[in-house]
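Re: Re: token formats

Sure, here are both.
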Amino acid sequence: MKKQTKFLIQLMIILHILFLTIQPIPTFAIKTPNVVKTKQYKNIEQLKYPTLISAPNNNAQNKVNKILLRHIKDSFNRYSKLMKEMEKIKGDPVCKESPSVCHYEYMTSYQLKYNQNNKLSILFNDYQFTGGAHGNTVITTYNFDLKSGNELTLDTFLPSEREYEKVTNYALAYMKKHPEIFYTDPSEFTDFKVTNETNFFLSDNGIELIFQQYEVGPYVSGNPTILIPLSVLQKK
């Protein structure tokens, strides 16, 4: 009798463990990122872009990929135009004396900035060199809700002028505290204002504003970022 009781207890324990193991994971606990794959447009090594190959639904996936494809097509047009211009100047005496001056470059790359909870942030870097001391990089950010495939703009997080003003003031105060990164002359920020056109990407702690070269700091600062924490974004 004791053996049977012991066996039944052990069986119940095993069944309980199996029951817990096969229980579905609650939706709120799922953080598995959607899959993003790198491609080369028209097999051109200099033109890399992302494509979403795993999303909550095909409709959302297609909407996102359509926007990403549109960007790389625009990059290809600029790349082609620059390569044609380079061919035209090859016979110039200056090019024969200093070949490197006439060697133009155009490259598109991207960074996956955020990929959690069905939200996706992509940052494109379009670099162009046409001679001179250094090239120029233009950044473009895209933020998506992967359940709908819709783009998220700053208006999504800052629904009123008051909210924009609050974030603008926070950014100005942050830049003032970091003169090693941003311009130190106050006149440089006379017309500064965070708008719906300001580039940004999502982060665990809020949103990160990111600026073009020379926009808020010298060339050596690259593309400075400012984290706008959740505490600032929350309405009061």
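Second one below.
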Amino acid sequence: MGRREQPVDETVPARGRLATYLRMHRYSAGFTYARLSTLTNLSPATLKRAASGKVIPSRETVEAIIQACGGDESAQIGGRDLWRRARIGERGRMLGTPPRPHLIASQAELGLALVNLYEQNGAPSLREMQRRAGGSRWLALSSISRIIKRQSLPSSRQQMEAFLAACEVPARTQPVWTEAWVRVTARFLYRMPPPHRNLYPEAQRVTYTGSYVRRTEVDLLPELDILPRMKSDVSMGATTRA
């Protein structure tokens, strides 16, 4: 008889729950680590670490274990959710609670919300995000880095959509996020001198036509009393009146 497996490390509760979930699937399938290694092409040592609770395995490792053990799509969704929660719990970098996307009214709020989308998705690597977005043509690594560090917002509607795809935001909810980007950048650009409007060419195209201002439908909405002529600092979240 083999040695009894060590108890799951519960130092980080969310990490422990993921490890327990993976062990449950292995026990249910009746596989040894050697057999599971053959099915997943992962080393027994990697599989044991994944189910130890001491580390967070890659999402690909989690998915491979569940699939090899006969888990269905529901089991995969459960595994990915536990993986995200483990990453959030270990990193501890969620930045408060930003408004819902349809209530976002400033650059600072949108910047905060985008960082939280990234963290909620488990903070994937920059290259993985670029892959999900369709390649460097749509989302450069440097752009991703600036967005998640709250140094800038997406510079165009296409880049905003690419970032949302990289964070695996469901397609049905992406439009409300894109509308938030248009709303925030349009309000900001409307008060900027012309030379600086080129910083956001996509918003400029949406907001301006020819030599005169043509405000978009979303920008025609009445502004809240706290917003008139206000500029927001994306990185610090501070606001100052112009």
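The radius of gyration is 22 Å. The CA atoms of residues 50 and 57 lie 5 Å apart.
- S.
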